Automatic annotation (TrEMBL):
Source species, domain of life: Bacteria
OmpR/PhoB-type domain sequence ranges: 127-226
GO process terms (BP): phosphorelay signal transduction system; regulation of DNA-templated transcription
Organism of derivation: Enterococcus rotai
CDD domains: trans_reg_C
InterPro entries: OmpR/PhoB-type_DNA-bd, Sig_transdc_resp-reg_C-effctor, WH-like_DNA-bd_sf
Keywords: DNA-binding, Transcription, Transcription regulation
Keyword Cell division: no
A GO term, aspect molecular function: DNA binding
Name by which UniProt lists this protein: OmpR/PhoB-type domain-containing protein
Length: 230
């Protein structure tokens, strides 16, 4: 399941088993906490959001979720024991899609998520709309194609590939890339970009047999090159 999911929790340790499981299923998952995550700007990069360990910040969280669903609706899952039916109804009315008890089964959560994504985004046949050298990008289903071999990309992977293709043979700095993908002008996390490039190279090699399309520009960033320029 090629999806981008953000997991927001108080402590990474309490969610490590879930993180490891979803990662093994091919999901790109970013982890943040309630105080650091920029709900207004970063949420657009994700297909779903998981909230684990919701506590006293629930009132402020409700306001943020309402705003998110107005501007950028996103599937939202909460992991929390909520004994009160009234409170459960309140969670759902504020835009939470599914509530899991803290004793939830990880494999059940994953299967439910997979089923929801399939129903929300049923497979279709698409016409290629964008081309970058030998590679083709399909914005309708966020895929990359080489000689009719197709590979699905996550939202972040597609956005990065599209940015690089718009600047083909031009080196983009880490700052340029981070600002474009995460709407942040400070606190550039190079490891996030490197991780995306790593997964993109693997996927491109799977369909083309070549992983030299994405070139590392030492101490600067990355660029997409024509094979003739390699």
């Amino acid at each position: 399941m090629e999806k981008n999911i953000v997991l927001i929790c108080k402590e990474v340790e309490q969610s490590q088993e879930l993180i490891d499981y979803l990662t093994l299923q091919g999901i790109h998952i970013d982890v943040s906490n309630y105080s650091d995550f920029d709900f207004s700007n970063e949420i657009k990069n994700y297909d779903a959001m998981i909230l684990n360990g919701v506590g006293t910040e629930i009132d402020q969280l409700f306001e943020k979720i309402l705003k998110i669903n107005q501007d950028h609706p996103i599937l939202t899952f909460v992991i929390k024991d909520i004994p009160s039916n009234t409170m459960r109804i309140a969670f759902l009315k504020f835009g939470i899609d599914i509530i899991y008890p803290e004793s939830f089964k990880i494999d059940e959560l994953y299967i439910q998520m997979e089923n929801i994504f399939k129903k929300c985004n049923p497979p279709k046949k698409y016409t290629i709309k964008e081309r970058t050298n030998d590679l083709e990008l399909n914005p309708d289903n966020r895929s990359i194609i080489f000689n009719k071999n197709e590979c699905m990309l996550t939202m972040l992977e597609y956005n990065l590939m599209n940015l690089l293709s718009e600047n083909e043979n031009k080196a983009l700095t880490y700052e340029d890339i981070y600002s474009h993908l995460w709407n942040a002008n400070s606190g550039v996390h190079k490891y996030r970009i490197s991780n995306l490039i790593f997964h993109l190279r693997k996927k491109i090699k799977t369909i083309s047999g070549d992983n030299h399309y994405l070139k590392t520009v030492n101490s600067t960033g990355y660029m997409l090159v024509n094979k003739n320029g390699i």
